Amino acid sequence: MRHSRITFNLCSKDEFMRVNKLLLDTHVFLWWRSNDQLLQVTAKSAIADADVVFVSAATAWEAGIKASLGRLNLPDTVESGVEDSGFEKLQISFSHAEAAAVLPPHHGDPFDRMLVAQAVSEGLTLVTHDRKLEAYEVPILWT
Hints:
Structural class: alpha/beta
Number of domains: 1
Shape: globular
CATH class: Alpha Beta
CATH architecture: 3-Layer(aba) Sandwich
Largest sheet: 5 strands, parallel
Strand content: 5-15%
Radius of gyration: 14 Å
């Protein structure tokens, strides 16, 4: 199944209307929570205007590992950040794991591979800054 790649760098408001269900990459979620300037205005608007925004359990897992290694300082849990932002939690299912296992090896990061598998399986647009994900057939909103 082929998916159209959606790019919102310098796009019109009408184009935002096509993106209703989003899945945030870990760095995008962290940028959103900290109001980081790395998250472009167009991406912020798309996230704010989306019908539903998901954050994967893989994000909590990845952020927790980075925090335990001292590479990330979290002000609260990812779960409370998701809830405070009004986002939805996306659990990892067996079908997600099996879909991630058969993805082409374009990207070696298991967390990013899981996000791609979840986005494809659930019909979501992945919001990311990671250009390595461009090789996958998944709708992407670039930050």
